Amino acid sequence: MATANTVHGRIESARPALTTPRVALGLALLAIVGFTLLFVQEPLVHDSLHNARHAAGITCH
To answer: Which spans are transmembrane here (predicted)?
Structure first.
């Protein structure tokens, strides 16, 4: 019987490669990008990130 490809299975197969520093770095990068896309509203920064926000599916208007 073939097993289904599940999220749990993918996490288990990735676990040996996911070290604590890699996970911390990934979470830090995610937080930085999230903060930048959501909370930086200076006009020049907003205009430069406008297309990136829409590409990421974030509505900014």
So the answer is: 23-40
The counts of H helices and E strands in the chain are: 3, 0
CA 36 to chain CA centroid, nearest Å? 12
Q: CA 34 → CA 21, 39, 49, 56, distances in Å?
A: 20, 8, 12, 11
pLDDT at 1: 47
Burial category of 37 from C-beta neighbours within 10 Å (exposed 0-12, middle 13-18, buried 19 and up):
middle
Say whether pTM exceeds 0.70: no
